[in-house]
Every structure is written in C-alpha cells, then in structure tokens.
Amino acid sequence: MNHDDLPSDLVGxxxxxxxxxxxxxAGVSAESGIPTFRDAQxxxxxxxxxxxxxxxxxxxxxxxxxxxxxQWRRKLIAESNPNAGHFAxxxxxxxxxxxxxxxxxxxxFHQLAGSEGVLELHGNIQRSVCSKTRKLIEPDWLARHADxxxxxxxxxxxxxxxxxxxxxxxxxxxxTLDAAFSAAGECDLMIVAGTAGAVQPAASLPFVxxxxxxxxxGINPETTGISRIxxxxxxxxxxxxxxxLARVMSNT
Length: 252
Ligand code: APR
Description:
about 35% helix
C-alpha cells in the first residue's frame, strides 16, 4: 500500500497538519501476534474471561491465576516485536510541530519502536507494583521471589505483586488522562488505529477532537462507533496503512 492508495484530501490534511494526536488499541499489536483483548483467548486461557482476570475482584479471588495469566502475556510479548505500524508512528512524530501518541495497550511496543512521551492510559504490563501501596516493585525483587505466584510485595506485609495496569473498575492515571484529553482538544488531526472504541474514557477522545474542530481518521479492518465521526476510514491493518501515512510525510 502506498500513498497513491490514500484519499488525496487525506494526503493534503497530513501535509498541512501541525498538531496530530493518535489513539491506538490492541489492533495495532495484532500483526505482532499479540491477541487483541476481545480475541478468543487461546489454549490454556480459552476457558477464562479476560474481563474477570483483568479486574481487582479477579485478582482478590485468585491472585495466582491472574499472576499466571499476566506472566503468560508477558512471555508472549517478550517473544514478539513491534510491527511496521509501531515503527511508522515513531517515524511520523518528527514531521509535526506536535505529535502525541495515546495508547490503550499495555505491551510497551510503541516505546520499543522508538515513540517518545507515550501516554499509557491503561498502564504497562512490563512493570509490577504492590497491590496495597501501588509502589513499583523492582525486577530483581521479583526474580528473587520468582517461585511465588504472585511474589510478595516488599512495600507492605499483606501486599502482593500485581501488574501496573488499569483493571476494569479502576481509575486511569489522572495526569495521563488529562494530557490525553488536552492533546485531543488541541490537535488538527486525530488518527484512531486498532481500537474498537468500546471502552471509556479512551473512546471519548476522538469525539473531543472532533468537537474541537479536528479531522478524524480511522484505521481498522472493521467499522466501529468512532467510524461515524471519522472523515476517512482506512479499512485494513494498521501495519499496512500506518506505513503508507509515514511515507506521505517522508516524501514531502
Ligand atoms: N489493525 C488494526 N486494527 C485491528 C487489527 C489490525 N491488524 N486487527 C484487529 N483490529 C481491530 C479490531 O477490529 C477491533 O476493533 O482492533 C480492535 C481491537 O479491539 P479490542 O480487542 O476491543 O481492543 P481495544 O479497543 O484496544 O480495547 C480497549 O479495553 O479490553 C480493554 O483494557 C483493555 O486496552 C483495552 C481496552
């Protein structure tokens, strides 16, 4: 796919944009082999509901099971790599006065691909924190207690290690969320890639951008709730369309 396949008004919009905000979801990591959140869980985890596993109630009910699920996801991520879509977003940032990447993903692939200042709305699976104090737990502590599922916390007698991600029913990091809404309100163009747009408050960001006068571009094999406010919908994978957008910028 190259930029000849892009609508000419979208090419014009990209070339004239000053401030761009991007919202990504699990779909942009699909080409890295990371199942999207709503993909049927595979293998051992097929019988478990991710909505239950990714919740404080699920962790309280069976901390070992939830810890094992995240260890399985961490292994999947460790055995995979960012894809062309991640690298395209990292490359595009340099071509705009303002470029803010907001992600719902917890795999850290945007940073691995070179993106800076990534706003991680739902945290990052690579970090672990104390279940009581939310203080960061260093990897060498976890390594020393690797046989415990989950390891105990060094910060609190009743604390356990848990992933530093936002579970269903938990609050998002306030400063990160504020920065994301500011970016949405100030951008000329919002690119929404690989998200079903089904989970709040992230799903509101494109609507805030639109209401603030930004143009919205959706990238997804399927149409979503965001498609109706998107001026352009590029139907297909992020790993195909995002590099096409980056080529527009590098060919100017
Ligand atoms: N490229 C782009 N989009 C894709 C691709 C792809 N290769 N493959 C699938 N998609 C789209 C799907 O069509 C779907 O719309 O990615 C979206 C993935 O949707 P979800 O699995 O719901 O993931 P996401 O929207 O990121 O979920 C948001 O909700 O589940 C919680 O905390 C979790 O961060 C997650 C949040």
